[in-house]
Amino acid sequence: MKNEVDYSKYRCPYDHIKKDGGHELHGPDGFENVYGVWCACGFRGPVFCRCPEDLKLKLKKELKMEKIKLTEFHYHELLDRASVAMDHFYEHVEKHVAAQANIDVKVAAEKTTSAMYNFYNLCSGLADDENRANIYEYEED
């Protein structure tokens, strides 16, 4: 007897682990009337337990894609936030007496400030770049 459940509508129990093959559930299929549920990640449901509820499978959420049209203001805002974060880190962490007193912490803080400065410069280049991204698309939870 073949199970008529569409397992592609259900989430793999291990979909929180990133796998190259993905996490698409398949089944029922099998050999000589023995049917089971399986996923490319390695998950195998027991052949005697084919009901999604018995396997504790959850339905996939409908993915709703949102789009935001990016304007010059978005890039100005990003530049401002990068500046605030960099200044805050420099003034309150790198210059802190405990950071200055410990050479390893001081060097790490200076590297962090330098990386933040490089990020700020990268963002400032986007403000006038005609080839910058104009649309941001994401999955809404």
Short synopsis of the structure:
With 141 residues, the chain is of the alpha+beta class.
Would you write up a description of this structure?
This protein has 141 residues and is α+β, with helices and mostly antiparallel strands. The protein has two domains: 1-60, no CATH class; 65-140. The protein is built from three helices and four strands; from the N terminus they run E-E-E-H-H-H-E. The protein has a two-stranded antiparallel ribbon. The relative contact order is 0.13.
Q: What percent strand?
A: 15-25%
Number of helices: 3
Structurally, how many domains make up the residues? 2
Total count of strands: 4
| Residue windows where pLDDT falls under 50 for at least 5 positions | none
Roughly how many Å apart are the termini? Answer: 38 Å
Taken from the alpha-carbon principal axes, the silhouette is elongated
**Which structural class fits the helix and strand makeup?**
alpha+beta
Helix/strand order: EEEHHHE
Give the biggest sheet. Answer: 2 strands, antiparallel
